[in-house]
């Protein structure tokens, strides 16, 4: 006999995890399916960044935010399937079959919280890349401290590259930024900060060669127009050229969900999509007034869960009461209060 969860949540980022928590609050059984080996979503791109704009939260490092978000998301013990890419969603009678690269999962409703798809940093595609990835070629900055006092060369000129360069300057004075265009993009103030800092910024310049045996010892860069080359000695190279997005789930799905003309699934503030029983939330969803921030994910997640609950059981309450009225949380509260005494 097939085991039907109430809801399958596709994507274990901030939205999927909050949806999991909220669905638990609403007595729903939940399965989260995540393509990557760990939960946390895109925030893994910026674990060392301080996030300031989450309500009720003092500045928090991305990595710490991930830890707390996972803890909250697992409050009601959902089933979690990591390293499973959802390839298709099919409707059969009143149920959904969610097929991954490993197996098939069954549920009464689906909430898509897949962000902009599965993202991978764009590779630099130079000789030695695979070898150097094991030593001193980086596509993310897991810990800023590891670069303390080092000569760091960073390639890229978008918002995250500018962010990273400014952050690196807290631990080293020797930062070189190489960017193939004339102007960097991102917040003007942060670009100015970088331009006025100790960093060397080489615009209209790109990396041509990584040199070294086991690790990179120097990099050959070239002027885009001048074609003049120079060799820069370095201890670490960080590449930030944006991300490849795998959107196969939405592009190839036989459900043909209506998509927004800009991007994302076209839906409404209640997380409803063009397909009854399939809801969406967070970066994956788009509607007028959509907030593309973590704070917006939470409202989306609550609406999507409430809509899914009503879809499964039209007689259920439209929404949950405040958390202090929730029976399951009352039991948990007692345990927590006991530890405070
Ligand atoms: C550099 C950067 C800095 C940012 N800074 C801030 C900030 O300061 N404040 C702020 O509020 N927001 C910030 N954001 C935006 C914020 O990170 C996003 O709004 C938020 O992560 C969206 O959460 P999500 O869960 O909707 O999507 P995501 O975080 O993208 O999570 C989606 C998850 O779904 C998984 N997935 C996708 N497709 C599939 C599939 N087919 N099968 C299984 N799993 C799948 C992905 O692997 C991913 O884990 C920033 C974003 C970036 C890139």
TrEMBL record:
Domain of life: Bacteria
Cofactor dependency: FAD
Enzyme Commission number(s) from the entry: 1.18.1.2
Alphabetical UniProt keywords: FAD, Flavoprotein, NADP, Oxidoreductase
UniProt catalytic activity: 2 reduced [2Fe-2S]-[ferredoxin] + NADP(+) + H(+) = 2 oxidized [2Fe-2S]-[ferredoxin] + NADPH
Domain FAD/NAD(P)-binding per the UniProt entry, residue ranges: 6-295
Top-level enzyme category: oxidoreductase
Residues that bind FAD: 15, 34, 42, 46, 86, 119, 283, 324
InterPro entries registered for this protein in UniProt: FAD/NAD-bd_sf (IPR036188), FAD/NAD-binding_dom (IPR023753), Fd--NADP_Rdtase_type_2 (IPR022890), Ferredoxin-NADP_redctase_2 (IPR050097)
GO MF terms held by the record: ferredoxin-NADP+ reductase activity; flavin adenine dinucleotide binding; NADP binding
Cofactor note: Binds 1 FAD per subunit.
PANTHER family (alphabetical): THIOREDOXIN REDUCTASE 1-RELATED-RELATED (PTHR48105)
Family: Belongs to the ferredoxin--NADP reductase type 2 family.
UniProt-listed HAMAP family: FENR2
Binding partners and assembly: Homodimer.
Protein name per the record: Ferredoxin--NADP reductase
Organism: Savagea serpentis
């Amino acid at each position: 006999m097939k085991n039907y969860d109430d809801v399958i949540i596709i994507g274990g980022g901030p939205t999927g995890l909050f949806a999991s928590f909220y669905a638990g609050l609403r007595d729903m059984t939940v399965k989260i399916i995540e393509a990557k080996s760990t939960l946390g979503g895109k925030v893994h791109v910026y674990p060392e960044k301080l996030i300031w704009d989450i309500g009720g939260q003092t500045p928090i490092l991305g990595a710490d935010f991930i830890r707390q978000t996972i803890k909250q998301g697992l409050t009601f013990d959902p089933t979690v399937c990591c390293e499973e890419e959802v390839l298709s969603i099919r409707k059969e009678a009143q149920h959904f079959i969610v097929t991954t690269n490993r197996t098939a999962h069954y549920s009464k409703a689906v909430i898509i919280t897949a962000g902009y798809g599965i993202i991978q940093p764009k590779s630099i595609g130079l000789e030695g890349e695979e070898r150097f990835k094991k030593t001193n070629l980086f596509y993310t900055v897991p810990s800023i401290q590891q670069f303390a006092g080092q000569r760091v060369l960073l390639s890229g000129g978008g918002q995250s590259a500018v962010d990273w360069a400014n952050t690196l300057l807290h631990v080293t004075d020797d930062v070189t930024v190489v960017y193939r265009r004339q102007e960097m993009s991102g917040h003007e103030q942060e670009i100015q900060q970088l331009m006025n800092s100790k960093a060397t910024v080489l615009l209209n310049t790109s990396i041509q060669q990584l040199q070294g045996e086991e690790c990179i010892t120097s990099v050959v860069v070239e002027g885009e127009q001048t074609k003049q080359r120079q060799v820069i000695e370095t201890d670490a190279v960080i590449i930030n050229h944006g991300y490849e997005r795998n959107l196969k789930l939405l592009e190839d799905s036989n459900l043909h969900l209506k998509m927004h003309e800009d991007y994302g699934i076209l839906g409404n503030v209640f997380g409803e999509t063009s397909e009854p029983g399939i809801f969406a939330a967070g970066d994956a969803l788009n509607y007028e007034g959509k907030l593309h921030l973590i704070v917006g994910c939470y409202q989306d997640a609550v609406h999507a869960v409430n809509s899914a609950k009503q879809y499964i059981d039209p007689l259920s309450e439209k929404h949950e009461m405040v958390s202090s009225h929730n029976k399951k949380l009352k039991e948990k509260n007692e345990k927590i209060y006991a530890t405070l005494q």
